[in-house]
Write a structure and sequence with these properties.
- There is one protein chain.
- By secondary structure, the chain is an alpha/beta fold.
- The chain is built from 19 helices and 13 strands.
- It folds into two domains: 2-66, no CATH class; 112-406, TIM Barrel (Alpha-Beta Barrel).
- 43% of the residues lie in helices and 13% in strands.
- The radius of gyration is 21 Å and the shape is globular.
- The protein binds iron/sulfur cluster.
Length: 414
Amino acid sequence: MKFLFSGITIRVTKKVIESNFVVALLANSKMESAAYSQSAAAAVHSSFREVFDQYSWDEVSERIYSKTEADVIGALENAGNASINDFMALVSPVALKYVEEMAQRSHRITRKRFGNVIQMYIPLYLSNECQNICTYCGFSFDNRIERLTLNEDQALREVEAIKAMGYDHILLVTGEANRTVGVDYLEKMVKLIRPQFSGIMIEVQPLEQHEYERLIEAGVSSVLVYQETYHEENYRIYHTKGKKSNFHYRLDTPDRIGRAGAHRIGLGALLGLEDWRVDSFFTALHLDYLEKTYWKTKYSISFPRLRPAVGCQQPNHPMSDKELVQLICAWRIFNENLELSLSTRESQQFRNHAVKLGITSISAGSKTNPGEYANHFHALEQFEVSDGRSPREVADMISSHGYEPVWKDWDKVF
Ligand code: SF4
């Protein structure tokens, strides 16, 4: 069964028909806001998948591409508290004309909500071993590279080098290799490293809820997991082997993290794989559901734009700098509480401007290969870093714009 709601045809399954959500939806024919639907959806759905299954990629795309200037102006008027429908307008092609106004609003909202602080973080790659084939990644299983996983002594040497740069906040990264970098290894490393940092984030293979609980207990505060693309059919083209090829297991991962009680969940799509406008809509839909379901958790959004890497494909849907500015501002106008993060994938010039647009955390001095800060193994990097400045140089740039670089995340007091 299909019906039209706020311009989007929603597929209704038998299961959904039985839910209160659809009863409420059918009873409220005057509902005009897609955001309202998400509120209702979050109240009655046990996982994001149930919300996701109601949307069609092509119909969402059509809706975004048919947005008008009036829609964009309306969305700008709702800045700071915009609906998912407004978000569609803000990422639409016609909104590019309004990017300057979007930037000014985004800047004002961010200063009001976050003050003049930009948080600094750095990734520590613990391993490049991976059992998955992802067509865009240097660590892909089919890439003939030397594989290595840091042992405790090697990891501590890396930590020492990172601490010497001034960091008190770190992102631990691994590929997805259950035998070598499974939850036992991760728990051991978190316990080893935790005393040195006030905040530990992880970007590792999707885990079960009880495994996330172990890592949170060991000291992890934030878990980042990117869907890469919400285009279910084409997801299979990019993820041809390994556990990551299971689209739904990955889609369900933020729910497992939320149930495990993480302090923060980070979301994102790999910009350039598929149409970034549509992927960003689905990311916003995902965020909207999570915020209403796991309301004690904080959220961050990252903007990984597909970068060149050895043996990897180029972006299918390249995104210009101006479009990336549009997207950053759209997120801020959509949600004033979100942490927005920008990595060294982006150029020095772009990042110099982006800190004034709405970004609240930024990496610097990053190496994307394991053991490169202190052990100097010179393993293959996951992707090419574009901004190669030192953390101190990036901190100076931040200060020169009137912001204060902060090297730590948060302290758990109770
Ligand atoms: S993106 Fe992640 S899962 Fe895919 S090959 Fe790279 S490290 Fe492995």
